[in-house]
Amino acid sequence: MKNGWNDDDQRRTRRTRRKQKGSAYAAVSALTLVVVVVFVAIAGAQQQALTPQSDTAAVERGQKLLVDQCGFCHGANARGGSGGPDLTRSALIQTDEDGKQLGEFLAVGRPDRGMPKFDFSRSQVSDVAAFLHSAIYLNSNRRLYKILDIVVGDAKAGEAYFNGAGRCSSCHSPIGDLKGVGGKYEPATLQGRLLLPRGRERGQGSPQVPLYADPTGLKVTVTLPSGDTASGGLVRLTDFGVTVYDTGSGRTRSWLRTGDAPKVVVTDPLQTHLDHLTKWTDADMHNMTAYLAGLK
After folding, report:
1. Which whole number is the average pLDDT over 22-29?
2. Phi, psi (rounded to 5 degrees) for 193
3. Phi and psi torsions of 286, nearest 5°
4. Strand blocks (E) in 172-256
5. Could you give the 3-state DSSP secondary structure of residue 81?
6. Bridge pairing between strands 263-267 and 219-223
7. 105 contacts 95 by C-beta, under 8 angstroms
8. Which of 28, 99, 105, 174 lies at 20 to 30 Å from 211 by C-alpha?
9. pLDDT 10s digits, 59-107
10. Dihedral of CA 16/20/23/25: which sign?
11. CB 234 within 8 A of CB 211
């Protein structure tokens, strides 16, 4: 006996401590198992939303139903509308399993946020879920996106705009710089270059060219106090210095700045295009695309 404790007391104490530790380990293990199960369930549901939908008919039915019932708020593609959020980013949709969570939510709605409940059948909920999961899958795999019906304008109207209101013929020519342009580029690329012409596409394997060395990049002229000038692509311009890329030598030159010295003048070879961005109409863009696509 030590300190008033006999051997039996010490054995009982050790047994009690072992039981307490065992209970604690069991509780932790059970909690860990619950977390793992929940995690696997969520991961499985998210994986479902990131897998292509095999039932295309259900996807089409779901889209039609969503447009009819929910399109005003969430848009025809579920990416958000006049008052509703982007459903493809919804955590509930991304973790939905075959419409189960979605159906429970639709049956209740969000009256506090102006969303009524919907009395959809089980098959209708399944169709909407199929469409939303398909939309999430396509958003996650943008390389699968196909641009359709680009050439929908009137080529004759595009030619009239080119030579008239658009004033494009003052800088470009269908028998000069634009000769055969319709055979060089896909219509989608042509339309993109028409609206955002900055930068040049490089062939596969060709080295990338920095924007200051590209013909469409900003240009700068630096006039030194001595009267000497230097021109080239604009690399950097701050209140404290300016750096110019000399296309002739392929080298950059820099000068410190104090106030307005040296004098720096920046020009944009695409200023006319930039000024025209606010004037384009959908019809003009489609007509011009059709006209350019026909220059082969």
Report:
1. 53
2. -70, -30
3. -65, -40
4. 219-223, 229-237, 241-246, 251-256
5. coil
6. antiparallel
7. no
8. 174
9. 899 889 988 888 878 887 888 876 788 888 888 888 888 888 998 999 9
10. negative
11. no
Q: Is the pLDDT of residue 127 over 70?
A: yes
b/e per residue 72-104 (b: at least 16 CB within 10 A): eebbebbeebeebebbbebeebbbbeebebbbe
Alpha-carbon span 12 to 9, nearest angstrom: 5
Burial environment of residue 239 by CB neighbours within 10 A (0 to 12, 13 to 18, 19 or more): exposed
Please give the DSSP secondary-structure letter assigned to residue 207: P
**CA–CA separation, 258 vs 69, rounded Å?**
63
- Report the pLDDT value the prediction gives residue 88, as an integer from 0 to 100: 84
Report residue 8 as tokens.
């039996």
3-state secondary structure of 229: strand
Please list, in sequence order, all residues whose beta carbon lies within 8 angstroms of the beta carbon of residue 208, skipping any fewer than 6 positions away.
Answer: 202
In the chain, the N- to C-terminal Cα span, in Å, equals 107
The torsion defined by the Cα of 193, 195, 198 and 204, in degrees rounded to 10, comes to: -20
Cross-strand partners of 135: none
- C-beta separation of 180 from 174 below 8 A: no
What angle do the packed helices 282-293 and 187-195 form, to 10 degrees? 130
Q: Give the span between the Cα atoms of 196 and 205, in whole angstroms.
A: 24
The predicted-structure confidence for 188-207, as pLDDT tens digits, reads as follows 888 888 888 886 665 556 67
Residue with tokens 């593609």: 77
208: DSSP letter? P
Q: β-pairing, 241-246 with 251-256?
A: antiparallel
Bond preceding residue 111 cis, omega within 30 of 0: no
* Residue found under tokens 């042509």: 190
The amino acid at residue 160 is: A
Per-residue pLDDT tens digits for 135-152 = 888 877 766 666 677 889
CA 121 to chain centre: 34
